[in-house]
Specification:
Layout (H helix, E strand, L loop, with lengths): L23 H31 L4 H4 L1 H23 L2 H25 L2 H28 L6 H9 L1 H17 L6 H6 L3 H14 L1 H19 L23 H9 L2 H31 L5 H26 L4 H21 L3 H14 L2 H10 L8 H10 L3 H16 L7 H23 L8
Length: about 450
């Protein structure tokens, strides 16, 4: 059993699944995986812009990229959690990396067949892998050390995600949009045959970033395969040889759905992920609409700014959360993010684009904090793995909210006005954290994050 200390490991697993100290190499290896799924997610924003022209899609149809992506998360989160429960976090991560590798490999035949549905299939395969990785790594990172620092650990690990996002969007900008100009404008001045040939050429360019990611994935898979990882799972006692607790799925689901604050957190994560995905999915499209004459590559630069703002927002929020109430900090961040989105859908100029970018600053602490805060509502830690899976399933919001925003854009004829959808979402997130802060002021004995 991996809960015993030995000369081959420098940590001791505690009965609740947490460790007495954080094994730094193993923890940083898990952090690297956060960056890897960030790169995949940010490349979707490039693909949405490219596919709209290549496959002649409306804004609603382009959102299907995110629907395929987050649909995979929804379907595979529970199976991933069962693998964690029955085997280990390490095995689940390896399975996730394998599906990620398979999905990246599918971009090669997809670029040959040149059909939208085949590309969506490749994206779905990647999403299956990422569902395993997020279901596993979000919970795993929070468990890899003392319980009292779980939120800080997860927030630190999550700062690697925007690093991956930045790298992904840079790869997309220079390897996919590297030829410059506006793809839609170029195709508009071509004959049907020329446009078809040029579109096929552009689809071949999508392979470039995925080749690089594929190489990194193979290296990480091999390193992880030969690295001893902590078990980090609750046991029934504190003595050596304590037996792991394996409640049934039915018992676990019954406990979780009757845990009101846990389910509120799952709902908040659903809304948040949908809002974040919608804003990032359409920021490039917003820039192309409100800034006349801008190229696709130039528009993608705004997403680099967004991810940098996201990264800085995480660092600033971590500083505040180490000094003040987590729920109070998130209430303010959410309220200010909502204000930015109100500006984004009401001011008809480049200011709207910069407001959308500023929103990403306030996105910084949201996902990991909601995740850790929600997971902390599970007082019976034997239900932790499945609880983490339900939170990851809430990422299906990333499939639904962008589709709603795309539909609003098509019906209103205004991409800018459609940003009212994420603005409403941020209002709901603000209410959630305000209520959580009020609850914790009334019940300070239940606050475990400080």
């Amino acid at each position: 059993m991996e809960n015993k200390s030995s000369k081959n490991q420098n940590w001791v697993q505690l009965p609740d699944g947490y460790l007495n100290k954080t094994p730094m190499f193993q923890f940083l290896l898990v952090c690297l995986i956060f960056a890897l799924w960030g790169a995949a997610a940010s490349l979707n924003d490039i693909l949405i812009t490219q596919f709209k022209t290549v496959f002649t899609l409306n804004d609603t149809a382009t959102a299907f990229v995110q629907s395929a992506f987050y649909g995979g998360y929804f379907l595979m989160a529970i199976p991933a959690s069962r693998i964690v429960k029955k085997v280990s976090y390490k095995v689940a991560i390896l399975v996730g990396l394998m599906f990620y590798i398979i999905g990246c490999s599918l971009f090669f035949p997809a670029s040959k067949t040149a059909t939208y549905s085949v590309f969506l299939g490749a994206i779905f395969a990647i999403a299956i892998g990422l569902s395993f990785l997020e279901t596993t790594c979000d919970t795993y990172a929070s468990m890899m050390g003392p319980r009292e620092s779980a939120n800080q650990r997860l927030n630190f690990a999550a700062t690697w995600t925007p690093i991956g996002d930045i790298l992904g969007i840079v790869l997309g900008k220079y390897l996919i949009f590297g030829e410059g100009g506006n793809l839609a404008d170029k195709v508009a001045h071509m004959s049907k045959a020329e446009a078809h040939a040029y579109n096929l050429h552009m689809l071949q360019l999508t392979l470039r970033p995925y080749k690089i990611i594929l190489g990194v994935l193979v290296v990480v898979f091999i390193v992880l395969l030969f690295t001893k990882m902590p078990h980090a799972k609750a046991t029934s006692g504190a003595t050596d040889g304590a037996k792991e607790v394996h409640p049934s799925l039915g018992e676990t689901i019954n406990y979780l759905i009757h845990n009101k604050r846990f389910m509120m957190g799952v709902g908040a994560q659903f809304i948040y992920v949908g809002m974040q995905t919608a804003v990032w999915s359409f920021t490039i499209r917003l820039a192309l609409r409100v800034i006349h004459g801008i190229s696709d590559a130039e528009a993608s630069t705004f997403m680099i700014f967004s991810y940098i703002a996201w990264f800085v927002g995480k660092l600033v929020a971590n500083w505040f959360m180490n000094r003040y109430s987590i729920t109070k900090v998130l209430t303010w961040f959410s309220a200010l993010g909502m204000v930015c989105l109100i500006v984004a859908f009401t001011i008809p100029s480049v200011i709207a684009v910069y407001a959308a970018i500023a929103t990403s600053f306030f996105f910084g602490p949201e996902w990991p904090t909601i995740f850790a805060h929600t997971l902390d509502q599970i007082h019976e830690k034997k239900y932790t793995e499945t609880g983490g899976a339900l939170i990851v399933m809430s990422l299906i919001g990333g499939a639904i909210v962008p589709a709603i925003q795309g539909r609003v854009s098509d019906l209103s004829g205004s991409m800018q006005f459609s940003f009212i959808v994420p603005a409403v979402c941020y209002a709901l997130i603000t209410i959630y954290f305000w209520n959580e802060h009020r609850f914790e002021k009334l019940h300070p004995e239940e606050v475990q994050e400080h």
